[in-house]
Amino acid sequence: MRTRVDQISDRIYRISTCIPDIAPGGFTFNQFLVDAEEPLLYHTGMRRLFPLVKEAIERIMPVERLRWISFAHVEADECGAVNNFLAVAPHAQVVHGDLGCQVSLNDLCDRDPRPLADGEILDIGGATLQRRLIALPTPHVPHNWESHMLFEQETRTLFLGDLCTQFGDGPPVTDQAPFEAIIAAEDLFHQTSLGPAVPATYRRLADLEPVTLAVMHGSSYTGDCPTLLRMVADIYQERYGCGTPLLGQPLPEHKLVGSD
């Protein structure tokens, strides 16, 4: 394994470790560091990756400067090393959606997390740098009830978590829309909770008009992000059967065997 560091947007760095045996061509686990007045790490990686990710951060800045730690949902590759980072960064605090804090993080984190409401803004830039992150709850998209994303307004970077997953160890960032690669990964992994919220969530994210998609597994994408997100929404609706509204529809009639 090797861990590399690449800048994908202004003062936003992708930290990437490729593990070769998980998927065809390998599978990347990516963290993103926003080097602002109050630096934020999005994803921690698994506990076993902590030494590699910590060393990679220190190529950019002292790890003790970390102020915020966030991630999409509670899984080992998203937040397995969260308490390791809290231990080495004395001023760091986890920031996540209200639901994630209530369900898991108030108990799991060694320091109390900061909850964010839908649409709440976290200003990490201070007086010298514009860096404002909007909180975006995305329950069950792609999976987990507490799923949550962040959108950085100044660079228009959308931190996606597991959305737009791709196989292989591709370039850190590409201007070639990875549409086919995203669908291939879904066909193999079946990672998405195929419910009615999926297409609507993709379209809500597209309406933000992001310029860069910070992808956890695979290459980040800079280009016509709204069109890519809407194309993926259409695939989930038309190919995988998501998007049919369920609320308000009558339940089908069922009869127990032996009942009158």
From TrEMBL:
Domain annotation ODP: ranges: 28-218
Protein's UniProt name: Flavorubredoxin
Organism of derivation: Actinoplanes lobatus
